[in-house]
Every structure is written in C-alpha cells, then in structure tokens.
Specification:
Blueprint: H1 2-11, E1 18-25, H2 29-32, H3 36-55, E2 68-75, H4 82-92, H5 106-120
Parallel strand pairs: 1-2
Helix pairs in contact: 1-3
Length: 134
Amino acid sequence: MKSVLVDFLVGGGIKPTLIVRYNHLGNNDGMNLSAPQTFRSKEISKSNMVDDIVSSNAILYGPGEHPDHVVVIKDKFHSFHSVATILTYLTKAPLVPPGTPVVNALAKQRAMLENIMRACVGLAPKNNMILEYK
C-alpha cells in the first residue's frame, strides 16, 4: 500500500523528500529477518521501488537527487489472510534469472502485465515491456 501511495503522489506531481516505512511482520518473518543479511535483502527490495519511481520522473527529481528513505521492520505476530499473504510473497519476491532487472513500482508492473496481454491478442506494446526477460 505504501509503495502505491508514493507512486500515486509522484505520478500526480507531488515530490516526496522523505519516505519512512514502518512494518510489523507476522508469520515468523521477524525471525527470518533477524539476521543482518536477510534484513538487508528486504531493505533493498523496498528501496528499489523508490529508485524505480525516481528514475522514471526526471521532471521532479534531478540527476543525483533522491528522497531520504528509511525502512523500520518490527517483529510482532499478526494473523494475516492466507491468500493476501501468498500474493504479497509472490509479487514482492519474484524468481527471475540472474541479471534480470526487477521492477518494483506498481504502475510499471501493471503496464508490463497489460503489454503481455496485448501481445497475447496481437496488439503492439505501449511501453515498459522488458519483453526480452519474460
């Protein structure tokens, strides 16, 4: 939800200068993220979304300009909806070949899915296809 909100704000011409993410994790995610290297992996995936948004908005963000971004993750058990948990895992941790660029911004992900559907019915892609990795 936070990723969508930032993408929406930037798409609407509002320039966030600071993004703080505060996540409560359940289902033993906190135990899994207690090791520094696994926490860093989660932090990188969250930061990549911000990088995608900044790189696609040269009007708001000049060269070398980037919003401050902090990720805080706390371990506290919460029962989650099983389908939502699976969908979150599948969409936030895609399995791709090494070297494949991973797109974390929701608007770009949606555009890529739309273009794949367009290709299935014989229409030309619009943008953000990255078809060579699909």
